[in-house]
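Lecture 7 notes: from sequence to structure.

We start with a single chain of 414 residues. Read the sequence below before looking at the structure.
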Amino acid sequence: MTKPQDIVSPERLLLLKLMQRGLAAVNGRNCVHTALQSLTLPDKLYLVAIGKAADAMAAGAIDALGARLRAGLVITRYGYQDTPVYRDPRLLSLEAGHPVPDEQSLAAGRALCLFLERVPAEAHFIFLISGGTSSLVEVLPDNISLVQLQALNRWLLGSGLAIDAVNRVRCSVSLIKGGRLIRLLAGRRADVLLMPDVPGDDPAQVGSGLLLPPDLRPLPVLPAEFADLPLSQPEPVTETECSNVAVSVVASNQRMIDAVKRAADEASVPVQLHTTLPAADALQCGDRIADIVHDAAPGLHVWGGETVVTLPDTPGRGGRNQALALAAARHLQGREDCLLLSVGTDGSDGNTSDAGALVDGGSIARGQDAGLDADDCLKRADSGTFLEASGDLIHTGPTGTNVMDLIIAYKRAG
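Now the structure, written as tokens:
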């Protein structure tokens, strides 16, 4: 059986290099540092950073603000803390659960509220918000328990709903999401720097819109098991409440894709950027991308965005990028000239610490040599098990960014 370390080719190295160039272009530390240098800010600043890129973004704030930064709170995913942040005595650094909130997510919510309440009346806030915030920090009404919240989130993650619908449900059980947190600012000014991980870079969807007016469209229909869950629409914040909040986007999926194109141009490889994914469902998307590459001229094809998955009751190992890659691998089977990379830009995918996968025409055969069946693994949402056996998983560790997913397909010239 072919071992992972044996699967090396110029084409695979090219795709990994392109991925690295794209991630570097949206590194949270660099992007926040640049953005803050362009702002006119007072001498006393207070920082709140939340999300999977929170530590990298906070490091950029430390670089840019220097002694003007008086205190801060940083909340990130377990294992995503970084040295410049947790060693800074001005900052309280916390970790919490993702993708399902846990007791530490509620503790982080309490810490957030306490921090906002205790800073001086003349404080000027810098908020750094990235993907993962919805799970990492929460304040619940008294009539909703953590167990209920976790059950709801597990269903949402496997429901196949679009992120805006998911976030409307999240806001309906929260005391801080959907703009509710803005009232704790009590009129104090805030610059909100966002790293969107949602289609269209909609600021109101990043972290379920802690400091932005809520999405008041109807909630999606929930399963009967949640019929007794007390849901409430967020009360809209007023124009006056929003007047002291300035929002800007510091990194985006498009910026990453543009960087991938520049790197491909430097390597003299033809590249076509696609504005939309060919399907919302991860498996269908993988199938269709493989078909596109089959019929395409030699060169690279690049997509950015985010698919959805519908999970069984007891899913196995993997996430939407691994599912997409394995679905595509079925159609690339036996092709020596085609490869596909699909990764989550934050360095994780679904319930794994793997970013995604890079598959080729031999992936299916390598997995079969290990006694696995691709169709069965996809049916059980266990693509990660197959891709580990085939040697195709990509592990980056925390990347310092989170701008949805990157998909690169390549067809070598004959």
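The first strand starts at residue 45 and ends at 50. Keep this in mind for problem set 3.
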